[in-house]
């Protein structure tokens, strides 16, 4: 098989690097540089960190036709895996769950990634299973073993801002030739990918800041245990993205549209409960069932949330308003708040609930994601439910609380949703 053939090529690395490192730069064709710069421009347009990492990794892999890759970002002095792509695993239905990894590496010479972060220099490895004798790092086989994948050639580059600050590393795996056989990375790959990584680092840092500001906003808004709130919104957003993506494939949406919606949906979904900012602590943190009056106050969070987005100007505002307002509507029309004529009216409590496809898709998706997460988590007013009881509830509510098509999708991607739950378990 192609992957094993490539192992015969060993030690290519050090040699050709010394020979031609210098004039490789001039060999970089002008139009390639132009291409990288215009990609960098495009990266600045992408606001959500996950969409951005997705694009950065995709473009970096494209240069070397690499099968897989991951980005680790610096968090609390460690490298935390933030994003994974793997074409081989994505082609298999059962492989997708491995893309939600949750591990951290120390910045030291024990792993390739740690070594690159330590030295701030790119590293080419021809075959991860046959490392050169003298190197300090080892290859960790646990990912290959659990996912039945075979890592061979590896290119790891540091992500460094123009101010010299290390923000993480990018690792791309298994370069291929035109016949899809795995080959080693070349020195040109290294130069192009490093150049690109340095340009991408600035956008990544900006997008990370946006995400952090939003998470802080949510913490302030919810006045809950901050740790749990961050994990809750991250999970709801990730579930929503995956449910949407599967829905979009079923409904033959274009690749471009899917990318665009994923970008705004993730942030909008995170903000679904931000209207709780205006709900009294006495109600929000009540350690037990709510009275009718308290529940009436609580229901106001959907209107308060929608108001927050009504006259701002960023891309995700419309969707955020739509989700905030409609995430407690139910498919059968028994949800709240129902049609609202004037969002800013003093007392705008409402008529009968919206129904079926009259509820915006994004809100139908978040409704399912939010309830799944609420039931599988502990809340101040309830214990978490056993998994089987949660799944039974979702099955029972198909066509009642939830859009039936989305419930089918939920079960068809359940292993991915479980992997997400695992990844954001306590944050
Ligand atoms: P949340 O905790 O994020 O829950 C979101 C939704 O998950 C709920 O919307 C409901 O549809 C579903 N859910 C949560 N827990 C349960 C449960 O034990 N059984 C069932 N069948 N469904 C559940 P809902 O009911 O509109 O509530 C909106 C928000 O109101 C909740 O958000 C929570 O913040 C608050 N809330 C609801 N009930 C209580 C309560 O009894 N005590 C307190 N302190 N807060 C409550
Ligand atoms: C890992 O997956 O643990 C990272 C591999 C490495 O960089 O050594
Ligand atoms: C949360 O979003 O983590 C809190 C939901 C709640 O229990 O009110
Ligand atoms: Fe809510
Ligand atoms: Fe919620």
Give structural attributes:
427 residues; alpha+beta; Beta-Lactamase; Hypothetical protein af1432; 2 domains; two-stranded antiparallel ribbon; 18 helices; 8 strands; 10% strand; disordered N terminus; binds ligand C2E; binds succinic acid; binds fe (iii) ion
What do these coordinates show?
The protein is α+β, with helices and mostly antiparallel strands and 427 residues long. It has helices spanning 2-5, 12-27, 30-45, 49-64, 87-91, 112-119, 142-147, 187-222, 226-250, 255-270, 281-284, 292-299, 301-309, 317-326, 361-376, 387-396, 404-412, 414-423; strands at 68-75, 78-86, 104-106, 123-125, 154-160, 166-173, 175-176, 182-183. The protein folds into 2 domains: 6-205, Beta-Lactamase (2-Layer Sandwich); 225-423, Orthogonal Bundle (Hypothetical protein af1432). A hairpin with a 5-residue loop joins β5 (154-160) and β6. α3 (30-45) packs parallel to α8 and α15 packs antiparallel against α16. The two termini are 40 Å apart. Bound molecules: ligand C2E, succinic acid (SIN) (2 copies) and fe (iii) ion (FE) (2 copies). One fe (iii) ion is lined by residues 272-273, 370. One fe (iii) ion (FE) binds next to loops.
- CATH architectural designation of the largest domain: 2-Layer Sandwich
SSE pattern, N- to C-terminal: HHHHEEHEHEHEEEEHHHHHHHHHHH
Into which percentage range does the β-strand content fall? 5-15%
CATH fold category name of the largest domain: Beta-Lactamase
Cα gyration radius (Å): 24 Å
> What's the CATH C level of the largest domain?
Alpha Beta
> Spans of 5+ residues with little confidence (pLDDT < 50)?
1-27
What's the number of structural domains? 2
Biggest beta sheet summary: 6 strands, antiparallel
Separation, N- and C-terminal Cα atoms: 40 Å
State the secondary-structure class. alpha+beta
Q: Judging from the principal axes of the Cα atoms, what is the shape?
A: elongated
Average pLDDT reading: 85
